[in-house]
Amino acid sequence: GENVEQHPSTLSVQEGDSAVIKCTYSDSASNYFPWYKQELGKRPQLIIDIRSNVGEKKDQRIAVTLNKTAKHFSLHITETQPEDSAVYFCAASKSSSNTGKLIFGQGTTLQVKP
Amino acid sequence: DAGVIQSPRHEVTEMGQEVTLRCKPISGHNSLFWYRQTMMRGLELLIYFNNNVPIDDSGMPEDRFSAKMPNASFSTLKIQPSEPRDSAVYFCASTWVSGSGEAFFGQGTRLTVV
């Protein structure tokens, strides 16, 4: 089955710096790669996603890149702010299929220091 | 829509007791996931339903765990008998399998088994 590896497990940056979180997946049939942000004591919420027919997607300060050949994808946060501090999860699935289960990476705790 | 609704929000029970967690997915969604979140293991997928049918329960840790989805608007996750190592936050999430792919999470149930 699908396996998603995420690195690093913790990341500390200064406010204004960039942060990069990387994930690899094992199932080449996976075609949907979302990123979720979980603030302390709250539920995970989608912040950005990418499908396998796209190599990069941006939304203001966040961007995601996908390398299908290497089976890895990354989250990039620019101009980090203290409110970006949270746990970030990558995930992979075969969306739009009857076996579209969503498998998550282990999570990255991002700390943005003011 | 009020989103995915889970109950109870917190549950404290004694070892050996039966625990039932409840989930109401977003109306119109046809896929439902149960996840367990711990510091050590992150977000683990326990079971996945599509159109009320269990598609993949390979993540259910033991026979003590069971899940049902009797209709499109309700699912339960039962642990019988409960053990201290079952203590975790249990999330339910729902999505429309042929839609955007975004999974919406409930608030979670924090289970403590003493």
Question: What key attributes describe this structure?
Answer:
heterodimer; A: 114 residues; mainly beta; globular; B: 114 residues; seven-stranded mixed β-sheet; four-stranded antiparallel β-sheet; 11 strands; 0% helix; 54% strand
Describe the structure.
The complex is a heterodimer of chains A (114) and B (114). Chain A is an all-beta fold and 114 residues long. In chain A, 0% of the residues lie in helices and 54% in strands. In chain A, strands 2, 4, 5, 9, 10 and 11 form a six-stranded mixed beta sheet that branches. Chain A has a five-stranded antiparallel beta sheet with strand order 1-3-8-7-6, with no helix packed on it. The radius of gyration of chain B is 13 Å and the shape is globular. In chain B, the strands form two sheets. In chain B, strands 2, 4, 5, 6, 9, 10 and 11 form a seven-stranded mixed beta sheet that branches. A four-stranded antiparallel beta sheet of chain B has the order 1-3-8-7, with no helix packed on it. Chain B starts with a strand and ends with a strand. Chain B has strands spanning 5-7, 10-13, 19-24, 31-38, 42-50, 53-56, 65-71, 74-79, 88-95, 104-105, 109-113. Chain B is mainly β and 114 residues long. The A-B interface holds A 1, 32, 34, 42-46, 49, 51, 89, 93, 95-107 and B 31, 33, 35, 42-43, 45, 48, 50, 55-56, 58, 91, 93, 95, 97-98, 100-103, 105-108.
Topology, please?
The complex is a heterodimer of chains A (114) and B (114).
Chain A: E1 4-7, E2 10-14, E3 19-25, E4 32-38, E5 45-51, E6 56-59, E7 62-67, E8 72-77, E9 86-92, E10 103-104, E11 108-113
Parallel strand pairs in A: 2-11
Antiparallel strand pairs in A: 1-3, 3-8, 4-5, 4-9, 6-7, 7-8, 9-10, 9-11
Chain B: E1 5-7, E2 10-13, E3 19-24, E4 31-38, E5 42-50, E6 53-56, E7 65-71, E8 74-79, E9 88-95, E10 104-105, E11 109-113
Parallel strand pairs in B: 2-11
Antiparallel strand pairs in B: 1-3, 3-8, 4-5, 4-9, 5-6, 7-8, 9-10, 9-11
